[in-house]
Amino acid sequence: NAGVTQTPKFQVLKTGQSMTLQCAQDMNHEYMSWYRQDPGMGLRLIHYSVGAGITDQGEVPNGYNVSRSTTEDFPLRLLSAAPSQTSVYFCASSYQGSSYNEQFFGPGTRLTVL
Amino acid sequence: TQLLEQSPQFLSIQEGENLTVYCNSSSVFSSLQWYRQEPGEGPVLLVTVVTGGEVKKLKRLTFQFGDARKDSSLHITAAQPGDTGLYLCAGHVGGTSYGKLTFGQGTILTVHP
Prior knowledge:
The structure holds 2 protein chains of 2 kinds.
Chain A (H helix, E strand, L loop, with lengths): L3 E4 L2 E4 L5 E7 L5 E7 L5 E9 L2 E4 L6 E3 L9 E3 L8 E8 L9 E2 L3 E5 L1
Chain B lengths: L4 E3 L2 E5 L4 E6 L6 E7 L6 E6 L5 E4 L2 E5 L5 E6 L8 E8 L8 E3 L3 E6 L1
Parallel strand pairs in B: 2-11
Antiparallel strand pairs in B: 1-3, 3-8, 4-5, 4-9, 6-7, 7-8, 9-10, 9-11
């Protein structure tokens, strides 16, 4: 099993550009989440999904869109990139049957917005 | 808003030394998770503690959940260079289908040979 995969690994955007960060998992997990990691701030939840067709906002959703058409895929869209969105983005999946929502993380995408 | 404060933020020690990382909150959590993250990779779950006062051991790592389930600690005995990384604690509040996690800021540990 590949676990959680993310592409691309690195990305540089100019302010105002749009892009999609890809995330896929092959563990048949029902839950998927997107986090951003900034120095000294830990991981903050952007959006999450409890199943195909169901998404909800996390702590810092502004400027990001998500959709979940299949169990495996959970892309994150930046509609108009801003320098404040420079960060490392992690996708994670978790098993609905877990009582503690333990996360399986992907390797991350390092995004720089100029 | 629930907050988790980790201390220290940075820890630089020599191989063989012992260390403790703390994770504190004013909120009660149903469980507390510890993750380790290496450079260029995503966090990996080390352990989940769920009962107040619980102690779990993972080789040289000892994890404890506070009696009131508001705090936790990670103790490493005889640290090795392979322990180097970012350690994150995360609190989980149950009761909903998707229990959001609150992450601490992290502790960057460097173990020098």
